[in-house]
């Protein structure tokens, strides 16, 4: 007799991380990520190299996830994989592998939306990683990563309402571009954050984001950082060596502040809590300010542990858990897609 909670293998391959995880219900039994290093020399992810690397690393990653969970292929109840959005060549490797596994094991296949997965990662349970997940709907979610900056009113696991998004660059991308201007290696977001802890955020005056409503525009901010830097360099050519931490702190504040402004404006009385998701959720200033905002608003807030915030397969399993419960399985004719809308019942 099968236990009530399904045992699901999930795969993530949307960008440059090969991930595989095994979940029993919402409990994470293993969450293995293989981060590709081939891109470092190029200062960014090279799509062609990413898909080739997935071909080499994905099957060993799946095997490692099963071994760590102590689970055999024959015990699984379903196989899930990221369907999009992401780099098409990368997505095809994970999606195709998962479908082939599901077909050969005679199991249902579940295609998962990557952003929906980032948002639902807060519902995962894992001893020592995330013991008491926040639960229930509706809640407010802010997705901040290298490719996305989106604010959602989440009414149900498959009912996401987009409140605001970026009109140009994503916040992580803006962090990486600022880092590049400051002469830091790619991806520079974490280093800007680390240095900012020792700098003065008021030192350099940067433009404030002008976008009305709940949308974001990081392209203008990026230009403002560049102009401020060029102006200062004319006066003091050595500013980047002498004041690097102040540049990082000033840029970080300018990049993080709009996120908090819009979160505050988007909050509705019916929201039970708010969550951060995506790689930029690792940012120290954002974490501190998000927590302080939750206290001010008397609202529980969820900040994912790093292993759930950056790209990983356990979060794909979180969506698969809800999909399994509702019998939302995907046909074998489903294709991965570089652009994919978040599932929403109300547009
Ligand atoms: O979610 P993620 O791992 O990958 C995707 O983009 O899907 O996010 C990576 C992004 C990069 O742009 C990286 O620079 C940024 O998150 N990032 C940070 C920090 N840690 C990662 N940005 C600012 N502060 C950080 N501590
Ligand atoms: Zn992601």
Distance between the termini: 41 Å
Bound molecules: 5'-O-[(R)-(carboxyoxy)(hydroxy)phosphoryl]adenosine, zinc ion
Percent of residues in helical segments?
40-55%
Provide a count of the helices: 11
- Walk across the major sheet and give the strand order: 3-2-1-4-5
How many domains, as an integer?
Answer: 2
Largest sheet: 5 strands, mixed
CATH architecture classification name of the largest domain:
2-Layer Sandwich
Question: What is the CATH homology-level superfamily of the largest domain?
Answer: ATPase, nucleotide binding domain
| CATH third-level topology of the largest domain | Nucleotidyltransferase, domain 5
Q: Just give the CATH class of the largest domain.
A: Alpha Beta
Could you list the spans in which at least 5 consecutive residues all have pLDDT below 50?
Answer: none
What do the pLDDT scores average to?
94
Give the strand tally.
10
The assigned structural class equals alpha/beta
Percent strand equals: 15-25%
How is the secondary structure organized here?
Layout: E1 7-12, E2 17-24, E3 27-35, H1 47-69, E4 78-84, H2 88-105, E5 109-113, H3 114-120, E6 139-144, E7 149-156, E8 159-165, H4 171-181, H5 189-196, H6 219-235, H7 239-242, H8 244-266, E9 274-277, H9 284-296, E10 301-302, H10 306-309, H11 314-325
Parallel strand pairs: 1-4, 4-5, 6-9, 9-10
Antiparallel strand pairs: 1-2, 2-3, 6-7, 7-8
Bound molecules: 5'-O-[(R)-(carboxyoxy)(hydroxy)phosphoryl]adenosine and zinc ion.
Zinc ion binds at residues 114, 118, 145, 278, 311.
């Amino acid at each position: 007799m099968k236990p009530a909670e399904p045992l699901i293998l999930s795969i993530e391959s949307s960008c440059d991380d090969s991930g595989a995880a095994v979940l029993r219900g919402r409990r994470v039994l293993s969450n293995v990520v293989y981060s590709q290093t081939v891109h470092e020399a190029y200062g960014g992810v090279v799509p062609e190299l990413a898909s080739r690397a997935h071909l080499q690393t994905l099957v060993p990653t799946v095997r490692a996830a099963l071994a760590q969970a102590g689970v055999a292929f024959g015990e699984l109840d379903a196989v899930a994989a990221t369907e999009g959005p992401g780099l098409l060549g990368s997505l095809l490797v994970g999606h195709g592998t998962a479908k082939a596994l599901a077909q050969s094991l005679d199991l249902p296949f579940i295609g998962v939306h990557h952003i929906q997965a980032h948002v639902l990662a807060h519902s995962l349970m894992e001893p020592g990683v995330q013991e008491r997940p926040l639960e229930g709907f509706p809640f407010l979610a802010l997705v901040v990563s290298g490719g996305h900056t989106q604010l959602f009113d989440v009414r149900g696991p498959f009912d996401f309402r987009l409140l605001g998004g970026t009109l140009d660059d994503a916040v992580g991308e803006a962090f990486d571009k600022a880092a590049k201007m400051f002469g830091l290696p790619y991806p520079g977001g974490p280093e800007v954050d680390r240095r900012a802890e020792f700098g003065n955020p008021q030192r350099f005056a940067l433009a404030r984001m002008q976008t009305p409503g709940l949308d974001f525009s990081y392209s203008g901010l990026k230009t403002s950082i560049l102009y401020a830097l060029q102006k200062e360099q004319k006066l003091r050519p050595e500013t980047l060596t002498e004041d690097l931490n102040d540049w990082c702190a000033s840029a970080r504040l300018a990049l993080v502040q709009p996120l908090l402004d819009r979160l505050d404006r988007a909050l509705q009385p019916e929201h039970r809590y708010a969550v951060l998701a995506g790689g930029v959720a690792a940012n120290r200033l954002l974490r501190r300010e998000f927590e302080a905002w939750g206290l001010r608003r008397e609202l529980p807030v969820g900040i994912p542990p790093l292993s759930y915030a950056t790209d990983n397969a356990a979060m794909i399993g979180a969506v698969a858990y809800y999909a399994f419960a509702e019998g939302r399985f995907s046909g074998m004719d489903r294709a991965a897609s570089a652009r994919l809308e978040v599932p929403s019942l109300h547009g």
